[in-house]
Each structure stands twice: as structure tokens, then as C-alpha cells.
Design a protein that fits this description.
CATH architecture: 3-Layer(aba) Sandwich
Number of domains: 1
Number of strands: 4
Number of helices: 7
CATH superfamily: P-loop containing nucleotide triphosphate hydrolases
Order of helices and strands: HEHHEHEHHEH
Helix content: 55-70%
Oligomer: single chain
Strand content: 5-15%
Distance between the termini: 25 Å
CATH class: Alpha Beta
Shape: globular
Length: about 170
């Protein structure tokens, strides 16, 4: 959560000529509901079932970059499915950077909405600890701390593609 997946994904898609699919946006468009509304109506378990189905749908598309929600690889067999379909990137950001980004935009994050900064920090620490075993299974781990402005984004994408020319 808040590591920069969508920001980095958009820039990477632009640089490589691929199409970005933001899984949360895809779900919102398909069901005409925001992610927070879906969470409220279906609960987290209901949302995760829906998310899995949509991941498997977009996972069949060719020549795309898919930006998943932070919890996507941690439920069911989603990570195994992702690892079998293409290159999985864990865009890692420091805990401090994640907390800053969530505080700046907590209303779009159903698991963080209404929390105070210290509660967000605690939730981020616990969430990262629980999710890290999943994230570390990605094919590539890459730092997403420097995505705060256009220059940083462009530099980060360039550095990534220099390190992974096979993905260009």
C-alpha cells in the first residue's frame, strides 16, 4: 500500500509502450463502485474473492502491466497465479515514505480511512510484517521511494529499465 505501484506502473507503461491496468480501478469501473464501497457492501472477504476473479481476468491479457493492490498477492493463490503469468515486481518503499503517502491520502484506502497518524504507522508496520513473506517471493524487488515528482519518477523508471533491459 502506497509504495507507488500506480505511479510507477503508469510511467513504466509509457516508457515501454505497454498498457497499464490498475486492478483497483479496473474493479471500480467494472462494478460501478469504489473500493471502499465494495469493502462496506461485501466485507474484506467478499472483496478479495472479487479481486481474485478480476486478477485472473486481466492476467490473461497480453502485453500489459498490472498494478495490484497491496493485499492482492497475500490472499488465496493469487501470488502463485501472478508468478506463473509474468514477471512480478515488488515495488518496495520505506515504512516512513509509505506512512507519509497514506496520511496524505487516507480516504482512498479503506483499511486506513479514519485512522490517526500513529494508528496508520502501527497498521503499516504490522501490515508490512505480515505481507513481507509474500512480497519477497516476487521475481524482482525494486525501491519505490523516489516517486514524488516527474523527475524522480523518470529517473526511477530509467534506473529500473537499465537494471532490467529484458523488460523494456
Amino acid at each position: 500500500m502506497a509504495c507507488g505501484k500506480t505511479t510507477f506502473g503508469r510511467a513504466l507503461a509509457r516508457a515501454t509502450g505497454r498498457r497499464l491496468i490498475d486492478l483497483d480501478f479496473f474493479i471500480e469501473q467494472r462494478f460501478h463502485r469504489t473500493i471502499p464501497q465494495i469493502f462496506t457492501e461485501r466485507g474484506e472477504e467478499g472483496f478479495r474473492r472479487l479481486e481474485t476473479a478480476m486478477l485472473q481476468e486481466v492476467g490473461e491479457f497480453d502485453d500489459v502491466i498490472i498494478a495490484c493492490g497491496g493485499g492482492t498477492p497475500c490472499f488465496g493463490d493469487n501470488l502463485d497465479y501472478m508468478l506463473g503469468r509474468g514477471t512480478v515486481l515488488f515495488l518496495e518503499a520505506s515504512e516512513g515514505r509509505i506512512i507519509e503517502r497514506i496520511i496524505a491520502n487516507s480516504s482512498r484506502r479503506p483499511l486506513m480511512a479514519g485512522k490517526k497518524p500513529d494508528e496508520i504507522a502501527e497498521a503499516v508496520g504490522e501490515g508490512l510484517a505480515a505481507r513481507m513473506p509474500f512480497y519477497r517471493r516476487a521475481h524482482i524487488c525494486f525501491n519505490g521511494d523516489r516517486l514524488e515528482d516527474r523527475r524522480q519518477i523518470d529517473d526511477t523508471v530509467r534506473t529500473f529499465l537499465e537494471a532490467h533491459p529484458e523488460l523494456a
